[in-house]
Design goal:
CATH class of the largest domain in chain A: Alpha Beta
Number of domains of chain A: 3
CATH superfamily of the largest domain in chain A: ATP-grasp fold, B domain
Order of helices and strands of chain A: HEEHHHHEHEEEEEEEHEEHHEHEEH
Largest sheet of chain A: 9 strands, antiparallel
Strand content of chain A: 15-25%
Oligomer: homodimer
Largest interface: A-B, 41 and 41 residues
Number of helices of chain A: 11
Number of strands of chain A: 15
Distance between the termini of chain A: 41 Å
CATH architecture of the largest domain in chain A: 2-Layer Sandwich
Amino acid sequence: MVGGGQLARMTHEAGIPLGIRFKLLSDTPKDSAALVAGDVVVGDYRDLDTLRDFARGCDVIAFDHEHVPVEHLRALEAAGVPVRPGPAALLHAHDKGVMRERLTELGVPCPRHRIVADPADVTRFAREGAGFPVILKTVRGGYDGKGVWVVRDEAGAAEPFRAGVPVLAEEKVDFRRELAANVVRSPSGQAVAYPVVESIQVNGVCDTVIAPAPDLSPALALAAQELALKVAKELDVVGHLAVELFETTDGRILVNELAMRPHNSGHWTQDGAVTSQFANHVRAVLDLPLGDPRPRAKWTVMSNVLGGDYPDMYQAYLHCMARDPGLKIHMYGKDVKPGRKVGHVNTYGDDLADVRERARHAADYLRGTITE
Amino acid sequence: MVGGGQLARMTHEAGIPLGIRFKLLSDTPKDSAALVAGDVVVGDYRDLDTLRDFARGCDVIAFDHEHVPVEHLRALEAAGVPVRPGPAALLHAHDKGVMRERLTELGVPCPRHRIVADPADVTRFAREGAGFPVILKTVRGGYDGKGVWVVRDEAGAAEPFRAGVPVLAEEKVDFRRELAANVVRSPSGQAVAYPVVESIQVNGVCDTVIAPAPDLSPALALAAQELALKVAKELDVVGHLAVELFETTDGRILVNELAMRPHNSGHWTQDGAVTSQFANHVRAVLDLPLGDPRPRAKWTVMSNVLGGDYPDMYQAYLHCMARDPGLKIHMYGKDVKPGRKVGHVNTYGDDLADVRERARHAADYLRGTITE
């Protein structure tokens, strides 16, 4: 796996029971996954020779993030290395412009969008029907609210163009909430769909995920799963695909983002599903039959733990574990920096309000937001 | 953790979500746990200097097996290293003679037993009431049926005395089945009890574990849990304690063996309990509050996978995973040798016959006993 973040860490964890020999290409020996894996190469994923050397002896290459240049992936693939998902699929996760164009061709509902050339073009886009405010995104490199701007008028639209990366304009969707439809697909075409979840963002960062999404109409849930399965098939995705969706106030679903790897909206599956997204991602990239994606509990809630005031979380563990013996803590071994995702917690049970409160309390206590 | 076997491997796996920095002392770099852990020291656990060097920078030392000499553990403890469980407790897992003596003092029911000096003394032991056949065990070094003999008369009792290790004689108990009562205890005295399980042995090796033990009377289940909690407390065990029990044909329970570490009879907890034995062992040795030991399914069955004819199990994975998407495979990364424990499978569900059949089929298929 290329990239040593928490997704690689948890993929390694999920591969251990399968006897997988996990080899990691990590930026530093202190990256989240590098701390817990045995076979770690430290190197720069932007360097093709490093990637080629790393790929030797790997049966398949998978990814912790979307930042490996697509031309490098094409070179590896041309050299006979199984790259999963392949560059033809990953391009849609790397480039939001390509993603929007392709989804629209496929008839997959998206917000109004087009590539815009400059601030004046943003105004034209708004006048074509989307109206202000307009969402501007650099087509590459954004995540967790970075590389995204909400602009209210032409005067406010200058900054996104400064990076020299193409800029995608999108209408600001009037949405009721955000959902995610997560599916896993293998090279031989088997696919499984997890229950559609609700994803609650705070300051542009995922805060809480509720599985399944409460009060979601069965028809819309099915439509979201079918949409995600269609995208996975048509884009030839291998492994986990997260389709982030808006549920609009008028009852439609629109695609917000795609991620072709394990995803924050699927972390609940570690404790809440028969087979976790990480285990199924491993099975998919190795072309093994996929595991049962069904939930094991009526409700599972995931809340992210952001870095706060505690450099050492041992004291917080004492409180959280004693308060809630059913709490599932997943920390990433990262140095704590304010606002950085350093872990998450999962809770599950029959009473949604209780399950949410337990996750909320633990995440806030681990961060240091509450201390009682 | 000292020892690089599968118990260390699965303990590392369980420690990853807690952000534990896991350091391993392994006999070789190819041991089961050494293949998947990041911080591996290769060395001989029988050498005190190696242990002292290894212990530097460890907050606590725990164990994959019972083979570290007790005098080394005492030396480490005297040097201020937290050894968990400590040598005073571990002595009872190292030496079956000491264990029997102590349990008898505590009033814990055991088979008739005493240390015997020679074959003639075995006959005297039999005549004191146990009768032939008599079970002879070397007090140290046995596992999985090794170091255990069933002798029918004095003439057959010579071999156990040849090793020069004291020999314990025990009556051959007329038992209905074998049970295991697994508990976890922390240094501060918190303890949790898992449901009592039935353990089915084949050729002296654990084959299948059923959780909870079917048709076990609630009174006997409670007695078994109380017995295990008492033993853990009185022997000052820290971490997981497995108490292997005989359920006699006349409805009593007698202690067979003790193990003070995660144990084969607790592997079902990885997929069948809220908190696995490995996660609770980690929590206990770090003196963190313990997790909920309750089952997540009506029935969970574990079957061991023994080495068979397949050096490469990929083809067997294709069949087993396709046949049963809910199957949980746990392989240890070991080279396959006939009869060696190389992994286990867990299955769970509401119908015990079905859950058993799924585990049986998968274990047999992975071994190569069946190929349809």
